[in-house]
Every structure is written in C-alpha cells, then in structure tokens.
From TrEMBL:
InterPro entries noted in UniProt: Acyl-CoA-binding_prot_CS (IPR022408), Acyl-CoA-binding_protein (IPR000582), Acyl-CoA-binding_sf (IPR035984), ClpP/crotonase-like_dom_sf (IPR029045), ECH/Chromodomain_protein (IPR051053), Enoyl-CoA_hydra/iso (IPR001753), Enoyl-CoA_hydra_C (IPR014748), FERM/acyl-CoA-bd_prot_sf (IPR014352)
The ACB domain, residue ranges: 37-122
Originating gene: ECI2
Organism: Callithrix jacchus
GO CC terms in record: mitochondrion; peroxisomal matrix
The protein's name: Enoyl-CoA delta isomerase 2
Reaction(s) catalysed by this chain's protein: (3E)-tetradecenoyl-CoA = (2E)-tetradecenoyl-CoA; a (3E)-enoyl-CoA = a 4-saturated (2E)-enoyl-CoA; (3E)-nonenoyl-CoA = (2E)-nonenoyl-CoA; a (3Z)-enoyl-CoA = a 4-saturated (2E)-enoyl-CoA
Single GO term (MF): fatty-acyl-CoA binding
Function text: Able to isomerize both 3-cis and 3-trans double bonds into the 2-trans form in a range of enoyl-CoA species. Has a preference for 3-trans substrates.
Keywords, comma-separated and alphabetical: Acetylation, Isomerase, Mitochondrion, Peroxisome, Phosphoprotein, Transit peptide
Pathway(s) served: Lipid metabolism; fatty acid beta-oxidation
Gene3D superfamilies: 1.20.80.10, 2-enoyl-CoA Hydratase, Chain A, domain 1, Lyase 2-enoyl-coa Hydratase, Chain A, domain 2
Keyword Acetylation: yes
EC number(s) on file: 5.3.3.8
Length: 392
C-alpha cells in the first residue's frame, strides 16, 4: 500500500474509475482471421487513452481485467477487504477470468476496444487543443458580438472547476477566437464563482499505465493549455466575476487586462495541495508584485481580496459587484472599436520579448508539477477534498 495512487483509488468512489478523453480511432482488424499481436494489443491500450466518451465502469472493469490477465496472467493478488470497494471490484473482475490464457485475454482486449470504437460515438484522431469540426461546447458558452468573443466557463454547480473536457474546450475556443473576426477576447465565469481551478477529480482517473502515466499526461495537457494563453495573439481580458482559485488565478498573469468584481478573491493554495505554481506564475507574479508578495500567495497560499489583488498589480481595476457587468461591458465595447490590427501588433510587441522565457518557465513548472502529483502530500490533499474533510 505504499503507492499513494493505490490509496487514492481505494478511498475514492467508483465513479472516479473513469478513463479520460479522446476520440476512439478505428482499429483496422479482421478479428476472425487473426490473433492479436503484441503490437495490436499495445495499439489498443493506446486507443483506450483516446476514448472521447466514458465507456462506463462495467466496461472499464472488463478492460482492466483483460489488461491484467494479458500482461500478468491469472490474478494472484490477495483479495481486498470488503470496504475497499474499488479495488475489490477490480480484483473480482480480474479473478473472474480464471486461467484464461494470456493470448486470449490479449485478443479479447483488442476486440473489446475495437467494439468500443463503433458503439461509442467516435471521430477521427484529433490532437488535443486543435480545432474540431463541431462548434458546440459542453463546459463553456462562447458568443461573439460587437467585436468581442466571450468565453464563459459554464459548470456553475461545480464552481466552474476545470475538468479535462474544459481544458480542451478552452484551448479550442481560444484557437477559434484567435482566428475569428473579433478584436478582443474575454474570459469569465457563469454563476457565483469565476473558477475553483483544476477539477480535483481529474486526479482520480488512473489509466492502465498507473499514476506515473497520469502525471505525465496531465503535465502535457497543462503545458499545452498554458501555452495557448502565452501565444494568444489578440487582447485577452479576464472578467473575474467571483472567487478564483488555483490555475484560474495563475494564468491571469498572462492576460492583458483583469477586471474584477469586489466579490472576487484570488487564492493559490498550492502548498496546501502539495503542489507547486503553474500558469507561468512563478515568473509573472514575481514581475507583477515582487518576490515578497508573490511568495505570500504562491508559497503560503494567502488569499487576496479584489482590492488587494489590484494593489499588487494582478488586477487592473475593481468594480462594485452591482455595477460590474454594466461598467466592464461598456469599457470592453469601447476597446473593441479600436483598430484591431494596431491592438494585435501592440500586444505582439509587448509579448514577443517575453514569449521564449514564458514557454521555458511553463515547461519547467509542468515538469516540477509532474513530480509533485506523485507525492503523498498531493494525493492526501486530493483525497481530503474528495472525502470532504476540508474545504480551503
Ligand atoms: C491537469 C492540469 C492541472 C493543473 C494544476 C492546477 C492546479 C489548481 O488549480 S489547484 C486548485 C484546485 N482547486 C481547489 O483546490 C478548490 C477545491 N474546492 C474547494 O475548496 C471548495 O469547493 C470551494 C472553496 C471552491 C467552494 O466551497 P463551497 O462554497 O463550500 O462549495 P462546495 O465545496 O460545496 O462546491 C460545490 C460543488 O463544486 C465542487 N467543486 C468545487 N471546486 C471543485 C474542484 N476544484 N474540483 C472538483 N470539484 C469541485 C464540489 O465538489 C461541490 O460538488 P458537489 O459535492 O457534487 O455538489
């Protein structure tokens, strides 16, 4: 039980067994004519990571069992205790396969993945963050009018926590906004929160490759996500309508203006979560507010009020909540009437000098975080949140 991820899986609920993302790619196999080769099996394992839709716990347990049988043979693990629900379900699924030969398990795994590609709605393989054909969003509302593209985080019941889908959708929306005919882009939140940051249940979808693979995939995703903000070519404005936590705060250092309601707060509790700063904040916050104030936020997790964040230079201006929308939109509409090319070029001049540095900082922060996510400190913090022992 030394592995923290094993403990996490034990303590979290079965719905957290889910496998994340992306499109299933058709496996071109004549299933009756041949037995699955090791290569087919490895391809299938990779396809599972690309599933766009969650196939459900039953299928995931089957996949888990067949994977274990194909790679390790019959189940030889001690049976988990009765309260250890997730591991018991996994053990049962594997044990049920009895002495099924490894080759048959491998074939069955490949067949199952292949069948998922036809039963689950699939699309061609899409690199994370690239434009997809569909313009519909599950986790965002995106509108474009008066020269302004507005991206609204839209999971109000979850305080706009950023799940895997939302990371991808934000990247997609930013890429679309960078090419549309709007002059400026605005990011805001629906409901009482701006965003509660990374959805902590993101950490519970452990792929077959284990927590190391999960951490690696998350670091790749985070790096790409933050990279989109570094490279965004038009004026990017945050309308912070309420409390902001974690990554929703750190990336503010990459925005061109940040307008906040006086209800907003800014909280980066990375040490509490066993994590470390991201979103280039280890660089931008120091530049914006100096090392002493940046350390208070990023190391000691001091939560700032909107007024304090404005005094530190993180926020451009604070508005009373009662007039926030009206006043900021009046201002944004005026900005949007400015010559768009001039705004874009001015941003380029300001940003280009820093771009290389920002990408280097982003890469370093992601690599440090990849290690932090494997730490006991981080796993325990996530487990505490999921079991609701504490709120920040
Ligand atoms: C893969 C890239 C990783 C990038 C690295 C990013 C790091 C970060 O962003 S670190 C910051 C992570 N965020 C948090 O630690 C915040 C956790 N949430 C809370 O502490 C609280 O929920 C709160 C203070 C934000 C709000 O508290 P409260 O007003 O009491 O509301 P509830 O806790 O009841 O929340 C309502 C509902 O929303 C769910 N929820 C809120 N935040 C998150 C979250 N970050 N992740 C997942 N779920 C979240 C909460 O669980 C409730 O759901 P239900 O119980 O289903 O109603």
């Amino acid at each position: 039980m030394a592995n923290p991820a094993w403990r996490l899986a034990q303590r979290s609920c079965p719905s957290h067994l889910q496998v994340v993302s992306f499109p299933v790619v058709q496996l071109h196999m004549n299933r009756t004519a041949m037995r699955a080769s090791q290569k087919d099996f490895e391809n299938a394992v990779n396809q599972v990571k690309l599933l766009k839709k969650d196939p459900g716990n039953e299928v995931k347990l089957k996949l888990y069992a067949l994977y274990k049988q194909a790679t390790e043979g019959p189940c030889d693990m001690p049976k988990p205790g009765v309260f250890d629900l997730i591991n018991k379900a996994k053990w049962d699924a594997w044990n049920t396969l009895g002495t099924l030969p490894k080759e048959t398990a491998r074939q069955n795994y490949v067949d199952l993945v292949s069948s998922l590609s036809s039963s689950l709605e699939s699309s061609s393989q899409v690199e994370p963050g690239t434009d997809r054909k569909s313009t519909a969003y599950e986790t965002l509302m995106v509108t474009s009018e008066d020269g302004i593209t507005k991206i609204t985080l839209n999971r109000p019941a979850k305080k706009n926590a950023i799940n895997i889908e939302m990371y991808h959708e934000i990247m997609r929306a930013l890429k679309a906004a960078s090419k549309d005919d709007s002059s400026i882009t605005v990011l805001t939140g629906n409901g009482d929160y701006y965003s509660s940051g990374n959805d902590l249940t993101n950490f519970t979808d452990i792929p077959p490759g284990g927590v190391e693979e999960k951490a690696k995939n998350s670091a790749i995703l985070l790096r790409e996500f933050v990279g989109c903000f570094i490279d965004f070519p038009k004026p990017l404005i945050a309308m912070v309508n309420g409390p902001a936590v974690g990554i929703s705060v750190t990336i503010l250092g990459l925005f061109d203006a940040v307008y906040a309601s006086d209800r907003a707060t800014f909280h980066t509790p990375f040490s509490h979560l066993g994590q470390s700063p991201e979103g280039c904040s280890s660089y931008t916050f120091l530049k914006i507010m100096g090392p002493a104030k940046a350390t208070e936020m990023l190391v000691f997790g001091k939560k700032l009020t909107a007024g304090e964040a404005c005094a530190q230079g993180l926020v451009t201006e604070v508005f009373p909540d009662s007039t926030f929308q009206k006043e900021v939109w009046t201002r944004l509409k005026a900005f949007a009437k400015l010559p768009p090319n001039a705004m874009r070029i001015s941003k380029e001049v300001i940003r280009n000098r820093e771009k290389e540095k920002l990408h280097a900082v982003n890469a370093e922060e992601c690599s440090v975080l990849q290690e932090r996510w494997l730490s006991d400190e981080c796993m325990n913090a996530v487990v505490n949140f999921l079991s609701r022992k504490s709120n920040l």
